[in-house]
Amino acid sequence: MRTLYTWLLWLLLPIVFVRLALRARKQPEYLHHLGERFGFYPLLPSCRERVGEGVIWLHAVSVGETRATFSLVAKLRAAYPEHQILLTHTTPTGRATSEQLYGDGVLRVYLPYDYPFAVRRFLRRFKPRLGILMETEIWFNLIHEGHAAGVPMLLLNARLSGKSARGYARVASLTRRALQQLDAVAAQTAADAARLTRLGAQKVSVMGNLKFDIAPPQAMQELGLSLRRQFGAARKIFLAASTREGEEALLLDAWQAQAIPVLLVIVPRHPQRFTEIADMLARRGLRYQKRSENREVPVDVQVVLGDSMGEMFAYYAAADLAFIGGSLLPFGGQNLIEACAVGTPVLTGPHTFNFSDATRLAVEAGAAVQVSDAADLLQVAQKLLNDASALAMMRKQGVRFVAAHQGATDKAMEIINKVLS
């Protein structure tokens, strides 16, 4: 089965290049470091001397997974100071997030595509003592080659939706073999653990979600206060965070129809869509200002376009109420924990299957409200923004909700320590 899978990858190789070229039209960074995607790594000055040390490797696909590594990387540095931390990514935004979080304190490269020759080159180049795959990264050749090279491989902070589980079940023998070659699997929830076990995973435990352990950086909280002053301290601020394709139009239709007197701040999930959303606002005749202008927002401005990267904590800290995007349409939702951690009340749409457990717990705790559609979203938003006591209670419950579910980093470290010893 793995041989057939590999042959299929080779047949798809032309499509890989076409896909990269298409993505690069909106985000040119997709064509940067192209050799790394096939296992060719330059001897960078930042790692020329350090790569010979023991390497602990974490794979974090994009922004969310990279941010979730923060508490774990801090504990790894403290416990294994003689080791070099290597972060691999798949998207340019994930790589950029790593640069913002860690600077030159870690190595960072793209993980190669799952071709055996490329994976072998990666493993020979960095010789990791340990490989940590984050969330749902089950790459069949990568796991096989790591196992063959004697590199312990862990799947941590693992989550697997019912939809994804059904997809992996279609290649059951291939999935089972890969999962059984992992040295340990630690899932976010009991439901995730059960789905992974049914697919063949062994040594499965429940660790919770690393995203609960991320502390709002002091610099971001201070920037949030600065943004609040720019937006207008006396204005009500409604944040639409990490919005996805099609959601901004639904949100603006409902917002304009109900004429809610608030400053709307829209932060698209992907930076390549900043220009698209600016054009949408202009076509609608809305008075807007870009965050990148970095100046006070006049009272006649209706919308702020959050065209910046790495400032989501600050946006949350500046808002009275936040809608978490990716949930009005069936994208599966985004992480609501960061908003709760800074005490920002949360609204989310009906489609939260990627974060179903966290969303359910937040709603049960009184830190979030789940709505049915865009019209319902704006009606609930208007009601809450006019109810100071309700917002205050949600802020308090959000902070308590996050504190009550912390501890995943310590459980992850227990597994890592056991494997490395």
How many H/I helices? 19
Helicity range of the residues? 40-55%
Overall SS class:
alpha/beta
Mean pLDDT: 94
- The stretches of 5 or more residues where confidence is low (pLDDT under 50) are 45-49
Q: Count the strands?
A: 14
Q: What order do the strands of the largest sheet run in, or round the barrel if closed?
A: 3-2-1-4-5-6-7
- Beta fraction: 15-25%
Give the C-alpha Rg: 22 Å
Largest sheet: 7 strands, parallel
Instruction: Report how far apart the termini are.
Output: 34 Å
Q: Given the C-alpha coordinates, what overall shape results?
A: globular
Textual characterization of the structure:
This protein has helices at residues 2-11, 13-26, 63-68, 70-79, 92-102, 116-126, 140-148, 162-169, 172-180, 190-198, 218-231, 247-258, 274-283, 312-318, 337-341, 356-365, 374-385, 388-404, 408-420; strands at 55-59, 84-89, 107-110, 128-134, 153-158, 184-187, 204-206, 237-243, 263-268, 288-290, 303-305, 321-324, 346-348, 368-370. It is of the alpha/beta class and 421 residues long. It has a seven-stranded parallel sheet with strand order 3-2-1-4-5-6-7, sandwiched between helices. A seven-stranded parallel sheet has the order 10-11-9-8-12-13-14, with helices on both faces. 47% of the residues lie in helices and 15% in strands. The protein is built from 19 helices and 14 strands.
